[in-house]
Amino acid sequence: MVHLTADEKAAVSGLWGKVNVDEVGGEALGRLLVVYPWTQRFFTSFGDLSNAAAVMGNSKVKAHGKKVLNSFGEGLKNLDNLKGTFASLSELHCDKLHVDPENFKLLGNVLVVVLARHFGKEFTPQVQGAFQKLALGVATALAHKYH
Amino acid sequence: MSLTRAERNIIVSMWGKIAAQADAIGTETLERLFASYPQTTTYFPHFDLHPGSAHLRSHGSKVVSAVGDAVKNIDDIASALSKLGELHAYILRVDPVNFKLLAHCLLVTVASHFPADFTADAHAAWDKFLSVVSSVLTEKYR
């Protein structure tokens, strides 16, 4: 469970309403793969990831980024039960995908940077603070079923 | 980990724009740090941390200026920040985890001010550069 104040919830929902989830998802995942290239280890079937232009233009990266961010958006609708919301995804990431949970934090932080880039001044320190809490909550929920 | 020629070029070419707004960027970086990671305020019990305070402005300015020193000496950051490294190791003793938090907040600030310049390649270069700066500052810790 993540504890956002009423103001923080309003800030996050307000901003999310304006997010182009499809684009932002692709950009966030792409930047994860460019800024932290070792994360490419999970995407060997995605084709050309050899440079930033290739990664950011890669259609599989965009499609997968969209999926990931839509899923993140689900978390926003279930702030009081993040662990329940992400339970089966958590099992999937542990048992089938074998993803180190550290990567959830990395992606969360890249998402915050992407939101800052898109929203500029509107992404105030307070809005960022609220998003960081949410991102950490989602990352924790995704790691919850690991064993 | 060392910076490629291309990465150094990106950092140096963006620095002019950042330096032109140094104080605003420094202040905002610290505001973001304290808003997202309140535990970092434990290092500043003697500061007025209200947004826009004189303390925040002067300290933010100092931080950006130090980053600027690293940029201007990008081929030998260790020498440029040697004294600052000693300050952090022997006097300030800020836990190393906090350098990542500050670096992240600086990236967020730069991204929000310079969306067009902050490409994926620039993001990668800056993240790596700040990681190098952090390593230099914690090198003498033990």
Please give the count of helices of chain A.
8
> Using only CA atoms, what is the Rg of chain B?
14 Å
Per CATH, the class of chain A reads Mainly Alpha
Number of strands of chain A: 0
**Strand percentage of chain A:** under 5%
Number of helices of chain B: 7
Quote the average pLDDT of chain B.
97
What is the share of helical residues of chain B? Answer: over 70%
Low-confidence stretches of chain A: none
Output the CATH topology of chain A: Globin-like
Give me the strand/helix succession of chain A: HHHHHHHH
Which quaternary structure do these chains form?
heterodimer
Mean model confidence by pLDDT of chain A: 96
Keywords (chain A): Acetylation, Heme, Iron, Metal-binding, Oxygen transport, Transport
InterPro entries (chain A): Globin (IPR000971), Globin-like_sf (IPR009050), Globin/Proto (IPR012292), Hemoglobin_b (IPR002337), Hemoglobin_oxygen_transport (IPR050056)
GO molecular function (chain A): haptoglobin binding; heme binding; hemoglobin alpha binding; metal ion binding; organic acid binding; oxygen binding; oxygen carrier activity; peroxidase activity
GO biological process, one term (chain A): hydrogen peroxide catabolic process
Structural commentary:
The complex is a heterodimer of chains A (147) and B (142). By secondary structure, chain A is an all-alpha fold. Chain A has a single domain (4-141), classed as Globins (Globin-like, Orthogonal Bundle). In chain A, 69% of the residues lie in helices and 0% in strands. Chain A has helices at residues 6-16, 21-35, 52-57, 59-77, 82-85, 87-96, 102-119, 125-143. The two termini of chain A are 20 Å apart. Chain B has 142 residues and is mostly helical. Chain B is 71% helix and 0% strand. Chain B starts with a helix and ends with a helix. The mean pLDDT of chain B is 97. The A-B interface holds A 30-31, 34-35, 52, 55-56, 109, 112-114, 116-121, 123, 125-126, 128-129, 132 and B 28, 31-32, 34-37, 51, 104, 107-109, 111-113, 115, 118-121, 123-124, 127.
